[in-house]
From TrEMBL:
SUPFAM superfamilies: ACT-like, Nucleotidyltransferase, Nucleotidyltransferase substrate binding subunit/domain, Poly A polymerase C-terminal region-like. Keywords: Hydrolase, Magnesium, Multifunctional enzyme, Nucleotidyltransferase, Transferase. The gene is glnD. The keyword Acyltransferase does not apply. Modifies, by uridylylation and deuridylylation, the PII regulatory proteins (GlnB and homologs), in response to the nitrogen status of the cell that GlnD senses through the glutamine level. Under low glutamine levels, catalyzes the conversion of the PII proteins and UTP to PII-UMP and PPi, while under higher glutamine levels, GlnD hydrolyzes PII-UMP to PII and UMP (deuridylylation). Thus, controls uridylylation state and activity of the PII proteins, and plays an important role in the regulation of nitrogen metabolism. It comes from Falsiroseomonas algicola. It comes from the Bacteria. Residues 1-390 are annotated as: Uridylyltransferase. Its cofactor is Mg(2+). Residues 506-622 form the HD domain. The keyword Disulfide bond does not apply. This is Bifunctional uridylyltransferase/uridylyl-removing enzyme. GO terms for molecular function: [protein-PII] uridylyltransferase activity; phosphoric diester hydrolase activity. Residues 746-823, 857-940 form the ACT domain.
Length: 940
C-alpha cells in the first residue's frame, strides 16, 4: 500500500521513545514516604506525591511542547512515570496496612498461597498497553487467587483513595483469577481490557498464573467470537461518533479512522498471535507468515504517532480529556503542530488534510490487516469456482459467498481486473470479499496504467453511472484506486473547507452528491425534491450529468474560481473517459455554472423579470436547465442534513418553472402592464363576495411591483386583512400563516409606513427567535406598508408553536411603538458556541447596478449573529434608502443577505459618493472596523 502522509511539520524530528527516567527518582520518593521502615503521616505523603506528580506531568508536557517528544513518545513516557507514582503508593500502602494483615483468605492447599503480598496490582486498558494521555483514566485491576479478606480490601481502598486525592481518574476492579476468566467470557469489554493487562506491583506469581489461564481461555474460545464482538462494537461506535472518516469535526479517538480503530487491529493481533507490537507481523517468519509489509507497518506507526500527537495537543489545549477536534480547536492544534499557510491553503486546512489522509489510511489498514488476521487464525477460505463461465473467465472466484480474485490471477499483470471485479460484484449483487479489498489496496498503484486504456475508462464510466454507483465509487476511493486513476481526484481527497456549512471533505461530499443523483433516479426523493425527481427521467445527457456531478468540485483548493478551473479539467478528462464532444462540452458547461441556480434562487429577486431573463440567456436550452436543476439539488442535498429544507426547495422549483416558461417563449417580451392586469383580474375573481367599494379600493392600492410579487390567493388574503384593519381602524395588523409544505411561517404586517420599519420588525423577529429567510416590502398607494416575512425556527422548520406566534405579534407591536429596547434585548440572545467562533468570516459588501433594471442590488456577507439583519437594514434606512425585497441565506455561520433598494425618488443609487457611504455603513454594521468614506465604491 502506498502511503504519502509524511511527518507533521514540527514533529519530524520528535522521538517516539520516552527518555530514560533517572533511577534515583523512585527510590527517593519511596524514601520520603517510608522513613526508617515506618510510613509518614498520610497528609505528608499526599504532599510528596502531589509534588512528584506535578513534576512528572510538567516534565512530559514541556518535552512534548518543545517537540522533543512525539505524541506516542509522550504517551509512553507519561505511562512509565505514572508507573513510578503507582508503585510508590503501593509500597506506602503496604507499610500502612502490613502485608500479613492485607492477606487474602487463601486456603492452605492453594498452590502458591502466601501470607505476604497475595494480590497483584495490574494496569489494564490503555494504561496497560503502556501509553497514557494527559487526562485519561488510569485503569487498575487488583488481582488475587482467592477473594480478598477485610484487611486486603482495606489496603485496596487505602490505595485508591490516595490516587483519587491526587486528582487522578481511576477505573478499578477487584477480582480473582477465576472471576476474570468468567467475566471475560461474557463481556468483550472486560476481555479487551484484560488483553492489555500489565504487571505493576505486588505478587507477580498471581499475575503470571492469570496470564497462563487467560491465554488458555482465549485459545479455547478461538478468535471468531472476539472478532465478531469487536466488529459489532466498532459498528455501534461509528454510528455514534461518525461513520465517515471525513467529517469536518472528527472524533480522533472513537470516530472511523481514529485511534480506537487502530487499537482494534492491535487487539485482534494480540488475541490471535500474542504479539506485543505490530512490526512483529512483518516477514515470512512472523505469525501468520507475514501479514504486513515493512511499508504497511511504518504506515501503522506513523498513524499511531500522528493521532497520539493530535490527542495530546487536544488534552493540553482544553485542560480535559477532549477527543473531538472542533472548529475552535483545529487552528490552535494545527498551529501548535507547525502547520502554516502554504500557497492558497491555510495552515488549518493543511493540518486537517493530513488528519483526514491519516484517517483514510487507518480505514485502509483495517481492510488490509483484519481479514489477513482472520484467515491466518481461522484458516484460509474455501475458494470455489465462480459458478458461471463469464465470471471464471474474468478471473474471479467465490469464497464465503463473496467475490474475490482467482488464486492464479496477478493484478499487476492485468490491472483492469480491479474494475471488472467491482462490476461483477455490482451486477451479481455480491459483496466484495475482505481478501479482495486487501488485494485492491495493495495493488491500487497499478491504476496509473489504466488512464489511457479505453476499455478501462469505459468500465469506470459504467460503474459511475450504473446501479448503486455511490457505493462502488466509495469502494474505489477508499482503496486508493480513484486517486491513481484520476490525478485531479487525489487533490481533493481529505480537502476540508474551514467553515460550518460543509459537513464532509470535498471528495466525500462529491460521493454523497452521486448518491443523491442515484436516489433521484430510484424515485426515493419524490416528496423531498419532486421537480428534480421528475426531471431526471427526462434528461437526454445522463452520462454527462453523472460526470458533471463527479467533477463539480474537482478544482477546489487551487485558488481562483473552482467552477472555471473545474470546467477546464472536464474538457481534458471527459474525452479520456469516452464521452463524445457534445457530452464533454455539456459537462464543462455544467461544472462552470453549477452554482448559478442556487445563487440566483437564494440571492436574487425571482419576481424581477431581469433575473429570469438573465438566467434564460445563460442556459438557452430546456435540456441544460433540467440538467442544472438536478445537479443543484444533488449538490445541496449532499452538503449536509440541515442544508436542504422545504423553503429552499420551493425557491428552486419556482425559479425553474419561471425560466422554463421563458425558454418556452412565454416571457420573451415581458409585458408588465398586461401581467399586472391579469393579476388584478385573478384576485378579483377570488373576491366575488367582497363589497364592490372594498374591492375597488383594494385593487387601487397596489403598485405594479406588488401585483407581480404574489399569487391570487395571497392577494385575496391581503384584501380581507386590509378591509378588516380599516374597518377596525387598527394602526397595526399582524397575521401569521404556517406553510408546512415549505417549512416556513408567513408573517404579514400592515401598518403605517415610515423609515426604519423593516429594521424594527426584523429586530422584533430576532428577539422572538425567528430567522428570516425571505421578505417582500411594499408601500401601498395609501401610504401604508404591507410587509411580508417568511421565517423559520432555529432548526430550519416552520415557526409554528402557538405561544411563540402570539409572542411574536406582541414583540412586533412593542418594537414599532418604541416600548421594546431592541439593542438591549438582542444583546441578551444566546451567542454561538465557542467552537464556531474560530471560523473567520471576513465582512464583504457588493453593490450591483446591473442585476436589476429598476433597483440597486446590495449583497452583504458576514458572520451570522442574532440581530444582524436588524443592524444591516437599519444602516440601509439611515442612508435614506427604501428596501423593496430582501433575500436571506445562511451557510453555516456565514450570512449572505441580498437587498433590492431604491432612493427616496424611486431610482437606483448611482452616485459614487453615496455608494461609498453606503458601503462604509454596511461594513460597520457587519462588524468591520470603521471605514473612511471614499468616492471609489465598487459597483459591479
Amino acid at each position: 500500500m502506498t502511503v504519502s502522509l509524511g511527518q507533521p511539520p514540527s514533529s519530524a524530528a520528535a522521538s517516539v521513545l520516552p527518555p530514560a527516567e533517572p533511577p534515583e527518582v523512585l527510590p527517593d520518593l519511596i524514601a520520603g514516604l517510608v522513613e526508617d521502615g515506618r510510613p509518614v503521616a498520610r497528609d505528608i505523603a499526599l504532599g510528596l506525591l502531589r509534588r512528584q506528580l506535578g513534576r512528572i506531568q510538567g516534565r512530559v508536557q514541556r518535552a512534548f511542547e518543545a517537540h522533543d517528544l512525539s505524541g506516542l513518545g509522550a504517551a509512553r513516557w507519561l505511562a512509565a512515570l505514572t508507573d513510578g507514582i503507582v508503585g510508590a503508593i503501593h509500597t506506602y500502602t503496604l507499610a500502612q496496612v502490613p502485608p500479613a494483615a492485607a492477606g487474602a483468605q487463601v486456603p492452605p492447599q492453594e498452590p502458591g498461597g502466601t501470607t505476604e503480598e497475595t494480590f497483584s496490582l495490574i494496569a489494564t486498558g490503555g494504561y496497560g498497553r503502556g501509553v497514557l494521555a494527559p487526562y485519561s483514566d488510569i485503569d487498575l485491576l487488583f488481582l488475587s487467587d482467592a477473594p480478598l479478606g477485610p484487611q486486603g480490601r482495606r489496603a485496596v481502598e487505602f490505595l485508591l483513595y490516595l490516587l483519587w486525592d491526587l486528582g487522578l481518574k481511576v477505573g478499578h476492579a477487584t477480582r480473582t483469577i477465576g472471576e476474570c476468566i468468567e467475566d471475560a467470557r461474557g463481556d468483550v469489554t472486560i476481555q479487551t481490557a484484560l488483553i492489555d493487562a500489565r504487571f505493576l506491583a505486588g505478587n507477580r506469581a498471581v499475575h503470571d498464573r492469570f496470564q497462563d489461564a487467560f491465554l488458555a481461555a482465549r485459545k479455547a474460545s478461538g478468535l471468531a467470537p472476539f472478532l465478531a464482538a469487536k466488529r459489532a462494537e466498532r459498528t455501534t461506535r461509528h454510528q455514534r461518533y461518525g461513520e465517515s472518516p471525513f467529517l469536518v469535526e472528527p472524533h480522533v479517538k472513537e470516530g472511523r479512522g481514529g485511534l480506537r480503530d487502530l487499537q482494534t487491529l492491535y487487539w485482534l493481533a494480540r488475541h490471535a498471535f500474542g504479539v506485543q507490537r505490530m512490526p512483529e507481523l512483518v516477514g515470512p517468519e512472523s505469525p501468520g507468515g507475514g501479514l504486513l509489509t515493512p511499508q504497511e507497518a511504518r504506515s501503522i506507526r506513523r498513524a499511531w504517532n500522528f493521532l497520539w500527537t493530535v490527542r495530546f495537543h487536544l488534552h493540553y489545549v482544553t485542560g480535559r480529556a477532549e477527543e473531538r477536534l472542533t472548529f475552535d480547536l483545529q487552528p490552535v492544534v494545527g498551529a501548535r503542530m507547525g502547520y502554516t499557510r502554504h500557497g492558497v491553503q491555510d495552515g488549518v486546512e493543511r493540518f486537517m488534510k493530513h488528519l483526514f489522509l491519516t484517517a483514510r489510511d487507518v480505514v485502509r489498514l483495517t481492510r488490509l490487516l483484519e481479514p489477513a488476521i482472520e484467515r491466518a487464525s481461522l484458516g484460509p477460505p474455501a475458494v470455489v469456482p465462480a459458478g458461471d463461465a463469464a465470471l471464471s473467465h474474468a478471473g474471479m472466484a467465490l469464497a464465503d459467498g463473496k467475490v474475490l480474485f482467482a488464486p492464479d490471477r496477478q493484478v499487476g499483470a492485468d490491472p483492469a481486473i480491479m474494475l471488472r471485479l467491482v462490476r461483477a460484484a455490482r451486477d451479481r449483487g455480491l459483496e466484495i470479499h475482505p481478501l479482495a479489498h486487501r488485494a485492491l489496496i495493495r495493488n491500487a498503484r497499478y491504476a496509473v496504467q489504466l488512464r489511457d486504456d479505453p476499455a478501462a475508462n469505459a468500465l469506470f464510466l459504467d460503474l459511475l453511472t450504473g446501479k448503486d454507483s455511490p457505493r462502488w465509487m466509495r469502494v474505489l476511493n477508499e482503496v486508493g484506486f480513484l486517486s491513481r486513476f484520476i490525478p485531479d481526484w487525489a487533490r481533493i481527497v481529505g480537502l476540508m473547507q474551514f467553515d460550518t456549512y460543509h459537513v464532509f471533505t470535498v471528495e466525500e461530499h462529491t460521493i454523497e452528491a452521486i448518491g443523491v443523483l442515484s436516489a433521484l433516479e430510484r424515485n426515493e426523493l419524490n416528496e423531498i425534491a419532486p421537480v428534480a425527481s421528475e426531471l431526471i427521467g427526462q434528461v437526454q445527457s445522463r452520462r454527462a450529468l453523472y460526470v458533471a456531478v463527479m467533477l463539480h468540485d474537482i478544482a477546489k483548493g487551487r485558488g481562483g474560481d473552482h467552477s472555471e478551473l473545474g470546467a477546464q479539467v472536464a474538457l481534458e478528462l471527459c474525452p479520456r473517459l469516452g464521452l463524445s464532444p457534445e457530452e464533454t462540452e455539456t459537462v464543462s458547461w455544467l461544472v462552470l455554472n453549477h452554482l448559478l441556480i442556487s445563487a440566483t434562487a437564494f440571492k436574487r429577486d425571482i419576481d424581477d423579470p431581469k433575473t429570469i431573463l438573465d438566467i434564460a440567456e445563460t442556459v438557452q436550452s430546456p435540456e441544460r436547465l433540467r440538467l442544472l436543476l438536478v445537479l443543484t439539488v444533488a449538490d445541496m442535498r449532499a452538503v449536509g442534513p440541515k442544508v436542504w429544507n422545504g423553503w429552499k426547495a420551493t425557491l428552486l422549483r419556482e425559479l425553474y418553472w419561471r425560466v422554463a416558461e421563458v425558454l418556452a417563449g412565454g416571457l420573451s417580451v415581458p409585458e408588465r402592464d398586461t401581467r399586472v392586469a391579469r393579476a388584478r383580474a385573478a384576485a378579483a375573481s377570488l373576491l366575488e363576495t367582497m363589497a364592490k367599494p372594498d374591492l375597488d379600493r383594494f385593487l387601487g392600492l397596489g403598485y405594479p411591483g406588488y401585483w407581480l410579487s404574489f399569487d391570487p390567493e395571497t392577494h385575496a388574503r391581503h384584501a380581507e386583512m386590509i378591509r378588516d384593519a380599516e374597518a377596525d381602524q387598527a394602526p397595526l395588523t399582524v397575521r401569521t400563516r404556517v406553510i408546512e409544505a415549505r417549512s416556513v411561517t408567513e408573517v404579514t404586517v400592515y401598518c403605517s409606513d415610515h423609515p426604519g420599519l423593516f429594521s424594527r420588525i426584523a429586530g422584533a423577529l430576532a428577539v422572538a427567535g425567528a430567522s428570516i429567510v425571505d421578505a417582500r416590502i411594499h408601500t401601498m398607494t395609501n401610504g401604508m406598508a404591507l410587509d411580508t416575512f417568511w421565517v423559520q425556527d432555529a432548526a430550519g422548520g416552520a415557526f409554528d408553536a402557538p405561544h411563540r406566534l402570539a409572542r411574536l405579534a406582541v414583540l412586533i407591536e412593542q418594537s414599532l411603538s418604541g416600548r421594546l429596547r431592541l439593542e438591549q434585548e438582542i444583546a441578551k440572545l444566546r451567542r454561538e458556541p465557542a467552537r464556531l467562533r474560530a471560523v473567520t468570516i471576513p465582512p464583504r459588501v457588493v453593490l450591483d447596478n446591473h442585476a436589476s433594471n429598476t433597483h440597486t442590488v446590495i449583497e452583504v456577507n458576514g458572520r451570522d449573529r442574532p440581530g444582524l439583519l436588524h443592524a444591516v437594514t437599519a444602516a440601509i434606512s439611515e442612508q435614506g434608502l427604501q428596501i423593496a425585497s430582501a433575500h436571506i441565506t445562511t451557510y453555516g455561520v456565514r450570512a449572505v443577505d441580498v437587498f433590492y433598494v431604491k432612493d427616496v425618488f424611486g431610482l437606483k443609487v448611482e452616485n459614487e459618493r453615496k455608494l461609498a457611504s453606503l458601503r462604509a455603513a454596511l461594513l460597520l454594521a457587519l462588524g468591520a472596523p470603521e471605514v473612511p468614506v471614499e468616492t471609489g465604491a465598487r459597483v459591479v
